[in-house]
Design a protein that fits this description.
- This protein folds into two domains: 93 residues, Cyclin A, domain 1 (Orthogonal Bundle); 30 residues, no CATH class.
- The radius of gyration is 16 Å and the shape is globular.
- The chain is mainly alpha-helical and 124 residues long.
- It is built from six helices and two strands, in the order H-H-H-H-H-E-E-H.
- A two-stranded antiparallel sheet has the order 1-2.
- Strand 1 and strand 2 form a beta hairpin.
Length: 124
Amino acid sequence: MDGFCLFDSDHHSSKPLCLAYIAARLSNLDLADNFLVALPHATVVKCHLTTHLDIIMKIVKETAINKESFVRNYQNGNAEKVLNEEQAFARYLGICSLPNYLIQYQDKALVMQSLEYADFCRGD
């Protein structure tokens, strides 16, 4: 991964990536999975700075998501609202590490977490 760099001095958060995926989902649910595959591919394989909106927009174009719809959802607060709701739901479920799995059947649910953050830090 020569040249891999996710952040720079002006872009130091992965939040744009989260908002981009949510905007993709809001814009076209059928194409959102393609976007979710293309985004980390551009980040890790192509070593693009995917925290930059211009790079995100290239991925929007590559995945045939409607540009106007994406920009509207990304910039007008729709994606931010969904992200806040999803983060609140994760806190409600007690999720504190990734990956985790939510298994639901009728009125029952179970959250399985693969690794506690403290254990990860210790290297257990």
